[in-house]
Design goal:
The structure is a homodimer of 395-residue chains. By secondary structure, the first copy, chain A, is α/β, with parallel strands linked by helices.
């Protein structure tokens, strides 16, 4: 029996597909610095970990499909602090941001419908689009301009009768771009004019540098019925393994439909939601400290990349990724080679080839994404090994 | 902007849709016996709960997309005890059985393809089918025959060029039917003859009564490339809130494709997997004790239903549900009325109208599903209130 078309066409994760090579390197005793995946080394807040330790129910039961009420009520408070005014019924708690994206695509698009997404974009949007039968229409942005949002004419030229939504990731994974209020106003205007949904992935909200402030898509009252926000606690609290996210919209009809999708899968994990709930009142100081740490790492990676001749990149303004254009042909091959053929004192570096973050064929082939999620020492060491590796690979 | 077709057509969960009425009743001070949902009152094993208490990592990190290796390795042992011979690479750990079903449908079916499923079936298959764009072709079975598998000719008459799989739930939710080895051989023969996948939902494996033994679809070597098993720990260990399940198949190509879907969503929850892992070596005696408890409950519910004139049902052989045909027109209306208009000493009963468990229009309207998941005393009380309610509703 043949598999389905989507089974044949779904993208292998460029973040994870090199793992077998990495495992083989590890078996040979080689230490790998993982810059390929957004798994921070920051400690998960003790407030969250305590919830697991202190769980005392005798039956680990289902929660409501919409998410635990206490958690949704507290999320309202969290968002209020971020200038986002919503009610608890505007929220569906999801199994991480991933499920929120799937629900958003499913609820807005029929099979064959289109979503416009600035590329390079978070590569797993491809997998979710394949699952939902959605065609991603890429809006290309460029390393040379810091992946700035293209002008309105360019965006509008991509709109067809099948376009249902514009989707953004702000702050951007993998670009590190942060859209200004003016950028978002442009998107809002286009969405209103053409009656399109705006799906905004804001999981890196807390990670903006250089004194910038983050603007949410939910801050535009005119988008009340069109704005859909996707969120996750994975990066915010360094709790990737908890798998807690949420879908937020003030469009009542849309949320009613999304709830039916949510009911089919019953509920997100129960104790993990309680842990997420315990993080709600974490103080501003916690984030400031983490931000200082990431800022330092950002500067290290950027400075190290700047030193390498032929590398093109712009200092990211948000999240914890940087896209670098390398003076090579095939970053896929280079990334694999670093794992199979190169090491310095039995250490090497893993990063994500960036082509999988583009939907336009044949672009991004010489680009990579680096996640700056290691501590200063490890990061310096990793970047030094990277520079050595690139030199040897080229020469 | 209009929502998608699937957003408009996805079924509201018949198990959960009456929750607003239940909440209103609770606000009025009425106690509700929940027989509507398969949330057991059995205590989650201490071995599992201890894992949460003793978790000591500082960073709650992503796990592998395929699931934690130690857990998959131990699952192999668990299945071996159940006569199921698989390797750890035949397993993808999923976020509960729900995600395993979605992956199974996505990987086998294109939009518009068909899956034959004996009805009544677990109602949420409808939601997953809507998400995957799959058409469920119902194979009607009847309360009067204990929901026995129809004869081959009947099954084969439903096969079209679009049929990709036969899906079964064994032991059956909501039917309580347990397919014999002979039943499964028939399904296997038909699948081989017509080159169809068999998706087998076996989450109630441990719950079979009257000395019957459970047979898995994975016990048929001739189905090596066609058998797909869906599993979950939710019922097995009364750990519905952990959201841990798995997808199992020996079809390598299929599992490679399923892994790409799994990579898109990164991983299932980490600590919950560790908790599931801790349950692997739970002794046979644990299940025997629970089975005795459910057996008692089964007898109570069945006996109480037998006493009511005009009720048709057959004693279930597995799982912990019973479908009862009632001497009324509209079980939906009756179920709602029990919450809004009826109580005995400020107590009432909630159960699931069964029509949503059928795909054929207009059948099952006078049927309900009762989950016998309460202790003896509560169950007796609930059934007494149920009988009173039915009497008053009819008269």
């Amino acid at each position: 029996m043949k598999l389905s078309e989507r089974a044949k066409t779904i993208q292998a994760s460029p973040i994870r597909k090199l793992m077998p090579l990495a495992n083989r390197a590890k078996e040979k005793g080689i230490k790998i610095y993982h810059l390929n995946i957004g798994q921070p080394d920051i400690e998960t807040p003790q407030e969250m970990l305590n919830v697991y330790k202190n769980y005392h129910e005798k039956v680990l039961a289902y929660g409501p499909s919409q998410g635990l009420e206490i958690y949704r009520r507290n999320l309202v408070k969290y968002y209020k602090r971020h200038n986002i005014e919503i009610g608890e019924d505007d929220i569906i708690v999801t199994t991480a941001g991933s499920e929120a994206i799937i629900f958003a695509m499913m609820v807005t698009c029929n099979t064959g419908d289109e979503i416009i997404i600035p590329e390079p974009f978070y590569t797993n949007y491809n997998g979710f689009a394949t699952m939902a039968g959605v065609k991603i229409v890429p809006l290309t942005t460029y390393a040379e301009t810091g992946f700035a949002l293209p002008e309105n004419e360019k965006i509008e030229s991509l709109i067809t009768a099948k376009t249902k939504a514009i989707m953004i990731c702000n702050p951007g994974n993998p670009t590190g771009a942060v859209y200004s209020r003016q950028d978002l106003e442009r998107i809002a205007n286009i969405a209103e004019k053409h009656n399109l949904f705006v799906i905004s992935d804001e999981v890196y909200r807390e990670f903006v540098y250089d004194g910038l402030t983050h603007t949410s898509i939910l801050e535009f009252p005119e988008l009340e019925n069109l704005a859909i926000m996707v969120d996750s606690i994975s990066k915010r609290y360094s709790a990737c393994g908890a798998r807690i996210g949420c879908l937020i919209s003030k469009n009542r009809e849309l949320m009613n439909a999304a709830l039916k999708f949510a009911q089919a899968r019953l509920c997100p994990p129960t104790i993990d939601q309680l842990a997420a709930n315990a993080a709600i009142d974490i103080e501003e100081e916690y984030f400031k400290k983490i931000l200082r740490e990431y800022d330092k790492r950002r500067n290290i990676v950027f400075d190290e990349l700047q030193k390498i001749e032929g590398v093109v990149c712009i200092k990211p303004k948000g999240a914890f990724y940087i896209i670098a254009k390398l003076p090579i042909e095939d970053a896929d091959d280079f990334a694999a080679w670093m794992l199979t053929d190169f090491s310095v004192d039995n250490e090497t570096v893993m990063f994500a080839p960036a082509q999988g973050f583009y939907a336009t064929p044949d672009i991004g082939k010489n680009e990579i994404r680096i996640a700056y999620i290691l501590n200063e020492n490890d990061l310096r060491k990793a970047m030094s090994i990277f520079r050595e590796g690139l030199k040897k690979y080229r020469g």
